[in-house]
Amino acid sequence: LSLLVLHGPNLNLLGQREPGIYGSLSLAEINRQLEVEGKNLAVEVFVMHSNHEGFLVDAIHDALGKHQGILINAGAYTHTSVALRDAIAAVNLPTVEVHLSNIYRREEFRHHSYIAPVAIGQISGFGAQSYILGLQALVYYLRTKCE
Ligand code: DQA
Q1: CATH code of residue 77
Q2: Which residue from 93, 100, 101, 136 puts its CA 20 to 30 A from 125's CA?
């Protein structure tokens, strides 16, 4: 299995950005953990980051034929982007939505996700561990539901 991990806007600043909310690990450290967990699960993990909505749309399109599932933290685009939602619906690849923070404990505008209705499920609130749990959930889904 080959999986695409997509990090959206401002996540390149992890570690320095509001550490009380997002924790002290950098994006590179999270990516290293994902790589290790990918090896444990015997899957290939490809990681991309962009602050640009259109780049993320392109990356979702390009996943078709290359990857079997997507793990995405769309950052603030979660709450604004019909385009990202439509891209995920268009490629129809199993997608797990992750957030470091628990978006439902925060401001009202973070309570709605455009991604959620086109995702298998969502993991929110476990810090960097959300990504690991999300990867495990995606692999579990692909191995039990799709093979
Ligand atoms: C986030 C939550 C979003 O509301 C926020 O805009 C982010 C990060 C998270 O991982 O907790 O950039 O997706």
Answers
A1: 3.40.50.9100
A2: 93
Does ligand 1 have an atom closer than 6 angstroms to the CB of 110? Answer: yes
Give the model's confidence band at 145: pLDDT under 50 very low, under 70 low, under 90 confident, else very high. confident
Question: What residues are annotated to the active site?
Answer: 22, 99
What single letter denotes the amino acid at residue 51? N
Give the residue numbers spanning the domain of 51: 2-145
Q: Using a cut of 0.90, tell me whether the model's pTM lies above it.
A: yes
Quick one: tokens of 80?
């604004």
Domain count for the chain, please give it.
1
* Complex-level ipTM: 0.99
Q: Kindly give, in sequence order, each residue whose CB lies less than 8 Å from that of residue 44, ignoring residues fewer than 6 positions away.
A: 1, 2, 3, 38
Give the torsion through C-alpha atoms of 119, 101, 10, 140, to 10 deg.
Answer: -40
Structure token digits, residue 64: 């078709």
pLDDT band at 89 (very low <50, low <70, confident <90, very high): very high
Taking the C-alpha atoms of residue 5 and residue 115, their distance in angstroms, rounded to an integer, is 15
* Cβ(144)–Cβ(86) below 8 Å: no
Binding-site residues for substrate: 73, 79, 86, 100-101, 110
- Say how many Å lie between the CA of residue 2 and the centre of ligand 1: 25
